[in-house]
Amino acid sequence: MDRWEFTHGRIGVNAPSWLTFEVHRPYFDGADSPLATVHARASLLAARRFEQRLPTALRYGMSMPASYRRLLTDESRLAAYRVRGPADLPRELASTNWRTLADAFDRKDDLDDVDRAGLAGWLIAVCLPESVLDIAPADLTEAKCGNPVVGTLQLARANALFAVEGLSERTASAYRQLIDNPVATVPQAQAVAAWGYLLSRHAQDDSASSMYFARAGELLKVLAGELTGFDHAVLLARLRLREVMAAERRRDFDLAWRLLGSASDIVSEASPVTSEDKAVRAEMWRRLIDRRVDIAVRRQDREAEWQGIAEGLALDPYDVKIRMQAAQATERDGDDEKALAEYLLAARLGPYGTAFALLAAARSAQRLGHNEFARVLTERAFRTAPRSARTRDALVEICQSAGDEPMAEVARRAATPEQPHEGNWHYQMYASYFNLGESQSPCLYARLPSLAYEFAELGAPPDTNWQRLMPPAFRANLVRESGLTDFAVTHPAELPQELRTPAWNQLCQWVAEFSESDVDRQYLTAMILFRLGFGKVVLDLVPARPIAQLRDPRELRIQHWRDVVRYVGSIGGAVVEPRASFEVADHPDCPTHLRFVISVFAVVFHARETKSLDEASKWRDKAQSCLDELLASAGYTPFEKAMMESRFYRSVTYVPFLRRDTRTLAAEMDRAEELARSVEPTTPYEEFLKQENLRACVESRSKEAFGFGENDLGHRRVLEVLQIDPYEPKTHMELAETLLLQGNPLEAGNSYLRTARLGPIGTARGYALAGECFERAGLPVLAEDCFVQALRVDPHAVSAARGWRRVATGIPELAAEYADGLEQWGAARQAARTT
């Protein structure tokens, strides 16, 4: 499959979505994959049995609960594969097998008993048990179940009910038709043995299980003359395997071991004839190995445990259960570094147990002293299973131990949501960007859309606004990384009603009435839309107008805002010059404050984009003239004047920078910082503005220090920036860069991890750079996980793919295949563009 195109825009919660898809592909679309686990291939055999019209022939003995399919789509974030029935999967995503399944289900009422039974078994194999109940909506009578085909259909109903409801009364009723007065047929022999197993594993009273096992044994004796030697051996081995559960419940582990030995001997002597027989035998061996390892652990037989693990890894290398068993065995041996690597590999191969593999990996990381890495793993465990008390408590504890009570509160709130999307970590952090909800992140930019909305409610923009302009991709990245794809809308009106807050509904009304609204209301609405990431909507709603023809200062202001939106949207590509804004500043009716704002903006633009000293100097002079007028005016408070002057000096120092006038640059930055520190806020909003400006000012001063070669001073200033806002991911990346200058790749890696943890800005880059740092620090296990996480977010990150290839430990051939394939894919695309 084309992994890079397939996963573009889809970010798995912990593992790359393509990896979850390939390991479990038969469940997703009914097709095979070289990486598919043994149990996932159940549907492939079921498809062949349906085609052969052999519903009573042996198929796999293990089936997954109904929750498994939900876990697959939740963890892979492949929402298009989230189906309740076979017809729900879009035809273009379905394999040939799946289309046959869907077609058969569509005409289920016209099928004969043979095809109905075969179809029911197939639905069990692809983990769609609820659809089985559409084929067998009621229990078939005991008399009819004497027919092997009908009995097979009834057994599928019983299995489906258990998968959906557990050991309910309906489940028991379905089994009773097969087990109360059984006759010697394969489905009834299997049903009797299965019921004994279910009692042993799930019932409070399992005293009757021995009777059912004995009854199943008698039925198999009668069937011995009717079945092939292979089929009889497999059924007998399955019975022994089920008896192991009863022995284990009684804590008779020696008996359980002897039963496993008996089952292994039976399977060893069985000779598969067809390819279908070989598939059944492989699944039987996989189950026997699984139980042998479990019972060996109970018996404290380390040699047998490791022997079973080695066999399991050879047979089923991508199976999460055998990888977990290996990691647990390694942890018991006291090898934390190897256990960490193995738990991380198990977590990538989920979904069953993903979160708990991550928690176990975090324990290993903590014992090794990798506390920041352990925190990242614990957070990923919580994101994978936010409804789990174990993941919530672990995350709260590790946040509190780090003195980070705000993040502990985010975990608590996400764990007890009123609406499903509120259980999402990213939503709790940045709800304002999703639907004008209540952001819990203390990061200074977490509430910007809500601030814009609050001023819109008041009906007037703030005299002094904040400076931060979020990149257009922020909302898109936030939605992608959170997996909340229902929020991936391009217009506020497209958001489903159940996801809206009252504020969002009000915004939709303002947008709907935009053309009839006055200019002030339009400007306020456009401010919210841009802060939410709807720049294109702003450009659609506010048509460009010839600046020279305007006379109303409010019209000039909204045209400037339109130009800012247009300019910011172009960053990262062919940058669009904000010419309309420059025309507004030169317009005779432009208010002084607006001219000041645009002039300062123009200095920064020309310094960064055109590198024109003449243009930057010209606009600085205009800004200075405006500032002098504003500072002399009685219309502004001391706070507002100090803020304007501080921002002025922080921005216009680009001019001495272009002149290489370091003395003037330092003096003017001193003034900007002095004002930023001395300003006295009188309201919570002014306090926010002070902190936002001071953070930006000290950040600029850190860059100044590094530019002058004063690395120690630059490092101290970055630390101060983090004191002002410790939740800004970009600053952690800057700290990492200073740590690398100091020759400390380990701590730099931890700082890059914080960037990734606090994303979405810089998530993939943070992980990739952390991987490079850990590789330099001689920590390949940490490096590998970081490279994989970078590829989870950005599957096209070739440097991360190459890093994974360099350090891969668990399945190095997969890392090499991915990196090689990505390089070839990129080269082919480049060649196509060239031609």
Number of helices: 43
Major sheet:
none
CATH architecture of the domain at 591-727: Alpha Horseshoe
What is the approximate shape? Answer: elongated
Helicity range: 55-70%
Briefly note the CATH topology name of the domain at 591-727.
Answer: Serine Threonine Protein Phosphatase 5, Tetratricopeptide repeat
Round the Cα radius of gyration to an integer and report it: 32 Å
Structural class: mainly alpha
CATH class of the domain at 591-727: Mainly Alpha
Distance between the termini: 25 Å
Mean pLDDT: 95
Q: Which consecutive residue ranges, at least 5 long each, have pLDDT under 50?
A: none
Strand content range: under 5%
The number of distinct β-strands equals 0
Q: What would you note in describing this structure?
A:
This protein is mainly alpha-helical. Among the domains are: 591-727, Serine Threonine Protein Phosphatase 5, Tetratricopeptide repeat (Alpha Horseshoe), CATH 1.25.40; 745-835, Serine Threonine Protein Phosphatase 5, Tetratricopeptide repeat (Alpha Horseshoe). Helices cover 69% and strands 0% of the residues. α7 runs antiparallel to α8 and α40 runs parallel beside α42 (798-807). The protein is elongated. It starts with a helix and ends with a helix. The mean pLDDT is 95.
